[in-house]
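Our consortium's second objective concerns turning raw sequence data into structural hypotheses that experimental partners can test. To show how far this objective has progressed, the report includes one record in full. It was chosen at random from the queue rather than selected for favorable results. The single chain below, 236 residues long, was entered without modification.
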Amino acid sequence: MVHTLPDYTTKYKMTKVFGNVDNTELAARLGSINTFDRRGNVLLLDGFESPTLKWVTAVNGAGSAVNISTNAAVQGDSSCKLTSGSNGTRTGGILKYIHPQISGKLGAEFSFTIFTNTETITLNFNHSDGTTDYINLITYDHANSKLKYGAVEIATGYTLEDGFTTFHTMKLVIDSLTKKPVRLLVNEQSFDLSSYSPTTQGAGSDAWVEMAIVHISAAGVVNSIYVDNVIITQNE
């Protein structure tokens, strides 16, 4: 073994810059919006930087609206503003259908703000095999400080900070093979959902995957929140 040649490696020599990062960290450093939970392979990314909204809108009530806004954002210049109406079902929401995926674990992630007059924020992450629809509904009940899966309370006395520019992040993972939810991430907390089951209903002839985010305001109030960095993944 030769001992007289210089050591040309960077090991133990770099005090300010480390020489190597993995691919996911490199992507994050180059500006990817997929920075919260990097498990899974990305099917869809939307940071709402386009002037055109690429989602179906669901609005109800006087003053309700959905639009791209530059008032607040996690990254970039814009986000999606969900304004819920003051009467009726008081909703402002977005939804998207994508083609069915090879059975396995799927993830739905988004970041959002909360305002004082927010009543609930819901995430629907549903799938259909063409025979049965499987409905996975997460509700953050800001008015009553609860977090729910379907009708089941998974956290009580649970309150997220409201504010114009304070973004929270939620991610739901489901298993389309076992037809069961897997886990829920909200900011730094993780909730095991494997003991729960989705609501089911009869389906049409088509298979699909659906993600919907809906904001409901307090009665009599027109209220807005901002949604950003929406991600759908597979192979979680």
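The partners drew two points from this record. Helices lie at 23-29. The chain has a mean pLDDT of 91. Both points have been shared with the crystallography group to help prioritize constructs.
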